[in-house]
Amino acid sequence: MQGFMTPPRKLHIKSYGCQMNVYDAQRMVDTLGAEGFVETTEAGDADLVILNTCHIREKASEKVYSELGRLRVAKEDAARAGRAIQIAVAGCVAQAEGAEIIARAPTVDVVVGPQSYHHLPELLARAGRGEPAIETEFPAEDKFSLLAKPSRDAIRARGVSAFVTVQEGCDKFCTFCVVPYTRGSEMSRPVERIVDDVRQLTDNGVREITLIGQNVNAYHGDGPDGRPWTLGRLLYRIAEIPGVARIRYSTSHPNDVDDSLIAAHRDLRAVMPFVHLPVQSGSDRILGLMNRKHGASDYLKVVDRFRAVRPDIAFSSDFIVGFPGETEEDFRATLALIDQIGYAAAYSFKYSPRPGTPAADLQEMVSAPEMDERLERLQALIDSQQSAFNKAAIGTVVDVLFERAARKPGQLVGRTAYLQPAHVMASHDIVGQVLPVRIDSLERYSLLGELVTAPAANSRAPISPAPFLSIGG
Ligand code: SAH
Ligand code: SF4
Ligand code: F3S
């Protein structure tokens, strides 16, 4: 409880890893905001620093310890000046390592796993009394309904595009991956709770909703009819909410693409024709060792189903190079698959053995120089596809959702349907609108163009979404 004259305590939060962590960080800020904390961008003048960590690769989780080293110094300096700083470790490293974190970095006051963020205020109080404050259980209660909702001001400050978690956890158990252990088994939020969250966002100026989950298209939340709904069905419901101009969802697994999802892409102009569909490898042998439960040809068939209803659809993917036992031939199969698909973008990673995962026991490690060389070849291929994709926009008119002022005075930046940043000279009051832009040139990954007053005849979009002109506030 804040006393009348108590200045607000300051909170600094640093997130690593995926979109789930970005979303969780906002909900932690909202929840601690209700306890009197205000966010600060400076770790140095915070009373509480939260590191929201990622365990996916060794590099990601080791970053936490170097950051904790720096924080220890800041905490000791502050203590000498008579000021206390609390340090909390949240996220997937907290879940995976628990008490070990405090053993290795005694400067840490609180360790909290992703399913327990609603207990943060209590954990901080416990730590304040010098009691142990470590929580990595998977509690039975639903954290989403127990975390505070964002305030109107917080929503407006975060901009026109927002994430909404609809699903969490994963039951797929790919042999390289820690997520099923750090986030637990799949759970889906009920449809009506998601609808309420989206309404609150759009009432406060949000125009683009990205539904997120580790395995978002395995969504099976309870509908208002008491039956489980698919992601496709959820998309139809979200598209009905006034103010929703664009809908995206991430991350999908190829095996969970069902007919309702394809139909949503066919029928709903708000559903963006850009899908993140990780395949990891193009070699059936490696896909088998990864326990992906699909081959390269199954993946191609899934892509074809999307393309049949939306010829303008584009894909991005994740790739792992150097999975144990990957031969040059296996790697070439990955390049061949990339060639066949033609991606608009992709993320690629060197395989990193993770403690507790089945693949960590595999012996046949690919050597470091081979991994480097394969990563370089794969990235060169992806880069060439991405720049061809971006270049194809030059001379066309595309719809852009305007997000904010760009660095250059008078310039605004927004995103195309394919998440390409697009810059135009325009007045700030078009932020939040989707308007047609004629693309003139490309500067690195950014499209440059000018607003056109006539409706977009998007050369890539046969189902050309009409421009959304000033929807509400
Ligand atoms: N749920 C998503 C993404 C999970 S993590 C999916 O199913 O694809 C994001 C990406 O990190 C993965 O797609 C994978 O490419 C990569 N990744 C996961 N574990 C890894 C590991 N042990 N080493 C290297 N990359 C890994
Ligand atoms: Fe990890 Fe595989 Fe689940 Fe994705 S589908 S989160 S890669 S186990
Ligand atoms: Fe990292 Fe956890 Fe996300 S391991 S990628 S933060 S689910």
TrEMBL record:
Q: Which reaction does it catalyse?
A: N(6)-dimethylallyladenosine(37) in tRNA + (sulfur carrier)-SH + AH2 + 2 S-adenosyl-L-methionine = 2-methylsulfanyl-N(6)-dimethylallyladenosine(37) in tRNA + (sulfur carrier)-H + 5'-deoxyadenosine + L-methionine + A + S-adenosyl-L-homocysteine + 2 H(+)
Q: Which is a Gene Ontology cellular component entry for this protein?
A: cytosol
Q: Give the enzyme's main class according to its UniProt record, as a single word.
A: transferase
Q: Which residues bind [4Fe-4S] cluster 2?
A: C170, C174, C177
Name the InterPro entries on file: Elp3/MiaA/NifB-like_rSAM, Methylthiotransferase, Methylthiotransferase_CS, Methylthiotransferase_N, Methylthiotransferase_N_sf, MiaB_methiolase, rSAM, rSAM_horseshoe
Q: What is its main location?
A: cytoplasm
Cellular localisation: Cytoplasm
Tell me the ranges covered by the Radical SAM core domain, including all copies.
156-388
Question: Entry's PROSITE patterns?
Answer: MTTASE_N, MTTASE_RADICAL, RADICAL_SAM, TRAM
Q: Where does the record place the TRAM domain?
A: 391-453
Occurrences of domain MTTase N-terminal (ranges): 9-129
> Which cofactor does this sequence's record say it needs?
[4Fe-4S] cluster
* The protein's assembly and partners: Monomer.
This protein's name: tRNA-2-methylthio-N(6)-dimethylallyladenosine synthase
Q: Which organism is it from?
A: Bradyrhizobium oligotrophicum S58
